[in-house]
Amino acid sequence: MVEDIGAVISKGFGTWKRNLNICVPFILELVTVILFFILGILIFTLIFIMPLVSQQNIDPESLSPDEMLSLFSSVFSESMFLMIVVGLVLLLLYMVFSSFFTAGAIGMAKKALETGHTDLHDMFRAGSENFLNLFLTNVLISLLTIAGLVFLVPGIISIGDVSLFLSNPESEAAGATLLVLGMLAWVFYIIALSIVLFFVNYALVVDNLDPISAIETGLAFFRHNILSAIFMWLFIIGVTVFISVIGEVASYVDVIAQLWSFAELILSTIVIQPLITVWLTRFYLDRTEKKLYSFEEYMLDY
Q: pLDDT tens digits for 11-46?
């Protein structure tokens, strides 16, 4: 007999309390984001800015804001293709690391839900076994998301010359309407895609699947648990929105806003993301009748 959503949430919370180390993959991913950001700035400076500065004998310290803006505009216009390639390579490299940490977190949550405890060995094992398949799966899902650009095609074709449209938007009111409708359709498409594929990552790691099998299994899981899966999606979105609303309220007070920005980052990394991972992993394990730590033992946590 499957658990109701309330049981999944309360028991998942009990598991998280006993396994706070599930936050480690998310901390490592945050560190990775920072490192890739620094790496991106260094690569941009060394490959694009420094050669231009050397060729034009520019003193970086003497540049005015307008001259700096002109320099950046020149870089973008002359090296756009190369910048896109470098950016894409960095993005793919980051996705590889992110896939490792995501797989590791799900693996830790799975072990904690099965036995009552987990350690970093479970993170490295699940990460090393599943990161490549998870990376390829995320690439496929990204391509499916990009495919939604097809909704914009009728509006773009109808508008024709973009420069004329920008100078006189009223001249292509019908095309603009089609473009707006296409953008709305794309947004709805992305939302629908995120819902139906919500459990693909969990299916992949829990069942050790390849990308195609993970997507098929995730879709089948959603079809068999439509209402409860949508409710879980809404619950997770609700938690995220609630944190964002607190941030918006705090933004009206400068001191609190600065403190909250830092606190929100820490809260998301150490509490919210690990807790969500445990909830969704438990939901998937329960609905697929996998092994779970006994209810009686869970009761000891309360």
A: 999 999 999 999 999 999 999 999 999 998 888 877
Contact (Cβ atoms closer than 8 angstroms) between residue 108 and residue 126: yes
For residue 155, the 8-state DSSP code is H
Return the DSSP state at 138: H
- What is the value of pTM for the model shown? 0.86
* Helices 80-115 and 273-287, axial angle in degrees (round to 10): 60
CA dist., res. 148 & res. 127, Å (int): 30
Cβ(22)–Cβ(123) below 8 Å: no
Three-state secondary structure of 180-227 = HHHHHHHHHHHHHHHHHCCCHHHHHHHHCCCHHHHHHHHHHHHHHCHH
Among 75, 73, 40, CA closest to 55: 75
198 φ/ψ angles, rounded to the nearest 5 degrees = -60, -30
235-258: b (≥16 Cβ within 10 Å) or e? bbeeeeeeeeeeeeebeeeeeeee
d(CA 95, CA 83): 18
